[in-house]
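for the writeup, i need someone to sanity check this before i put it in the appendix. the sequnce is what the collaborator sent (i think, or maybe the updated version? ugh). structure was predicted straight from it, no edits. if anything looks off just tell me and ill rerun, i have time this weekend
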Amino acid sequence: MSSSNKHNNHHKNLGPKTYLATDGLDDFLRVLEKYFFATAKVQFKHNPQKNCTDLVIDLYHNFGIGECLRHFNNGDWGNYNFAEESRSNISKSLENALESLNEKSLYPTDILELSFHFNDTSIIVARLFRKSIPEQASKILTAIGKHFIYFTKGLTEMPYEIFVPVFEDTSVPLNQSEMDTKCGYFDYWGLYFDKNKEHEALIYSLHKRKLYDESIFLFE
């Protein structure tokens, strides 16, 4: 896993072709900034062989995740009422914004990675399948609120980076592992903690609400 609050920008600049999807981009970013109270930045990864473009989106917030969750629990974060029946609104807005962008783009465009950068932590969501990020965004945000007390070790430690999701590295045989290779967004997350100027990498199981020390890798 890489670090974003201690971020090394590992996305390569692919040259002029990475900017072919700029038509409609301003409107798309305005939607993101409006609903997430953030400053949005985007990088392009254009694949000329497949004639498609992927977006790597970073949302920068000027507050901590605790404030975000407080508004979330009060039902007023992201200009939305987070009543149970309306939690799909964020996903729907993202899907509509992406659809509008695709109508104006020269190539089919999708979100490869979406990162939320708060003052105290970053949440990095990777794509699992086409349009998986806008489709699952509402449920992911809901899960963050529900599991916050568990992955912060009872509110005692804040991970500086959270990866959604992670998978078992099956290239290394493990005799005893509770991991399952067929995972989705709500099975395992990867967490980075500071430990005396060193990094502690843990896996959080959403099903068991437990932290594990395992060798992990990002599914990209």
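The longest helix spans residues 132-151. The chain has a mean pLDDT of 77.
thx in advance!!
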